[in-house]
């Protein structure tokens, strides 16, 4: 009896083992077929070369299986250069917990079969080329915690069913083309910590239900075409560290107790909206704040933020608002920035600040890279203390160029450019234009060996152009000294600016000849020398400047012929040689074939050219002017040759008794020769 029981029990165990194996084999076969279908519509299969019968599917590249049941639990194929589309058969991988296909070139629609993956927790499809809509049945993936669909071409609206994914913690779909607003039902995502919908034309308002996201730390809704006010409930999300509503049409004002409502705020971005009121002084107590950008709104009232408590802040963009009252303490907040040792960028442009630029700007952080205070109403000298900002790479001190009929008056900087500015050896760009700066251009700027761009236009600077400045091979973008009182010649060192694109020196008092070394500036696209006192001819060395598109030499005292090499400048779109003293025939090829592309007005000695120019025809004397000297040279050579032969012949006669040069046979033979 016992042996019978043992026999039956052993058979039962064997049966169960084989049944289990059969079940597992069947499951493996399902996964196997699904993966082959996945591979079959991938155009480049290099990353999937191991997906063949030589290996068990659990050993295929990017495939992860469970240890117990050996079913596929994860596909890890990030950045594998995959092209093609995503097979709907992936929906048969019923044990999948994770799909990572980020940063490939997959296209087509996201298959709705993914909605069958009830065990799916992580779905990463970002940075591909998927189009179509987000499948509505994604709501069936009830265990989904992390959904990333960013950087694709998805259209349509956010499925309302997403609001039922109670475990969803991260939802990223920025940089798509979704419309239809933010569904209020998303407020049910009470576990959400990060929500990024930036750069989608969603439209509509911000639902107040988003205030239910008590676990939220990061909210990005920039460039979403949102309107209306920011719901007060948003400012009750006390765990928020990053908040961005940039580039929308939001209105209203900010709550006064911002520090108490958002005590952990590190990143605060509201730029380019229609917000009004004052910037709450309570921002001073947001001690963790690192990034503040509120530019391009209607904020007004005196700026009363005490930045001394914001020791971690590295960027402040509060420009394009109205803070200035014309009072002595408008810029008092500058003094509070001295403790902000991490500050790298400070943008205060167009804020209506008035008064003398405080010397305390020299106390700003050594880490400050960009300091922009242009388009305000400062006056007086540029403080020499600016030379203490050794970390500066960019400085903007220009004033606004108004285009209206009655611009408001602006008080502007005057006095010299301090020599100490040459201490800022890390400069990349320097703009101090449209002021009343006077005196010389400091030669100390020659110490700025990283300078790419220098613009000092519309000032009252005088003296010569420092040679040291023209030896900066780093200058590649622009050198603009237009509309000053600079004098003297253009130094020959200008030819060392071989990579410069834009050279602008019109309306000064520069004189002498255009240096032939200028031809060394082979990268120039724009050359403006109009309104000076240059004389002589256009140097033939300029023939090497074949990339120039705009050339303006008008209103000088240049003379001679228009060089023929200008006809061969195939990129030249506009040429102005007007009001000089050029003579001779006007070319007719290249830029000269289009009367609207060049100007030669005010040159009374020119002739020929296009009929539209109305110039007189070039007479025969002018046409043969170049041949005449060559004719004279031929006569001189023949005469010299004849005289030499006669001399030799006479010498030979005296020596050997041969006939003289008057001998008729000799002359006939000579002229025949």
Automatic annotation (TrEMBL):
GO terms for CC? plasma membrane
Species this protein is from: Lactuca sativa
Protein name (database record): non-specific serine/threonine protein kinase
Annotated Leucine-rich repeat-containing N-terminal plant-type domain ranges read: 29-65
Q: Does the keyword Transferase apply?
A: yes
Which residue ranges does UniProt annotate as crossing the membrane? Answer: 628-652
Q: Which InterPro entries match?
A: Leu-rich_rpt, Leu-rich_rpt_typical-subtyp, LRR-RLK, LRR_dom_sf, LRR_N_plant-typ
Q: Where is the signal peptide?
A: 1-23
User: Where does the UniProt entry say this protein principally localizes?
Assistant: membrane
Query: Which Pfam families does this UniProt record tie to the protein?
Result: LRR_1 (PF00560), LRRNT_2 (PF08263)
Going by the UniProt record, its keywords in alphabetical order are: ATP-binding, Cell membrane, Glycoprotein, Kinase, Leucine-rich repeat, Membrane, Nucleotide-binding, Receptor, Repeat, Serine/threonine-protein kinase, Signal, Transferase, Transmembrane, Transmembrane helix
Compartment(s) of residence: Cell membrane; Membrane
Q: Name the SMART domains for this protein.
A: LRR_TYP
Broad EC category: transferase
Q: How does the UniProt record describe the way this protein sits in the membrane?
A: Single-pass membrane protein; Single-pass type I membrane protein
Question: What SUPFAM superfamilies has UniProt attached to this entry?
Answer: L domain-like (SSF52058), RNI-like (SSF52047)
